[in-house]
UniProtKB/TrEMBL annotation:
Binding site residues for substrate: H111
Family statement: Belongs to the aldo/keto reductase family.
Family matches, as InterPro entries: AKR (IPR020471), Aldo/ket_reductase_CS (IPR018170), NAD(P)_OxRdtase_dom_sf (IPR036812), NADP_OxRdtase_dom (IPR023210)
Molecular function (Gene Ontology), one example: oxidoreductase activity, acting on the CH-OH group of donors, NAD or NADP as acceptor
Protein name: Aldo/keto reductase
PROSITE patterns documented for this protein: ALDOKETO_REDUCTASE_1, ALDOKETO_REDUCTASE_2, ALDOKETO_REDUCTASE_3
Amino acid sequence: MSISDSVTTLANGVDMPWVGLGVYKAEAGDEVKQAVKTALESGYRSIDTASFYYNEESVGEAVKESHVAREDIFITTKVWNDEQGYEETLEAYERSCKKLGIDVIDLYLIHWPVPGKYKETWAAMEKLYEDGKVRAIGVSNFHEKHLNELMKDAKVKPMINQVEFHPQLFQKDLLAFCEQHDIQLEAWRPLGHGELLEREPVKQIAEKHQKTPAQVLIRWSLENNVVTIPKSVTPKRIRSNAEVFDFSLDTEDVKALNDMNENQRFGPHPDTFPYDQ
């Protein structure tokens, strides 16, 4: 198995790659384009962007210029907080499609659970899904309470919940909740900050398997049945991060990494996010 053909099947039957390239904070223009092209050449078939990243256009150009057929690439983008609401979301979708240069978005996510807005936004996502304009819909940075509230009125359940997830923030209860409701959990910032690569359990396990610490952390997400999108703009690291399908972690490895949990976030908490800024 390789990164090109390793997929999970979402609740609606759509296949999504287990590992993709994240492009958060990657600069629009040459930096993003080179990263996306390198990823596609290295076998990646999933690219994760967002309107808030201001690099959708560059992602779209790289996809178009690559030698990989559009239908073989899984593109995720997200509706930002100030774009939420029913009509606003439909308009935001059109803007993202235009920038990406595509007719159908593979996965469209609500970026954050904006209080008083995300249910309205979800109704628009459902409309886009019913109209065949997106292949799958989901959310990002939602906790159990947000998902429960959303599902009270939803006609379609989210297929994905993309959250910060790494050994120092092993969101075990949220993972179990999503599994119970057939919502695929996806990890952003799966490598934590650089310091996580230097932590002793990670380094020891990497040495044991003759792999890099980053590869071990990516593999750990997969062992927990979590889709992952490590971000890099360095060609060597992009290629290296793809080489995680030729080994697996032992039970004791997974436990040692799980036990690193400190409920430590490197990004914001959805309950304290400055939604009014």
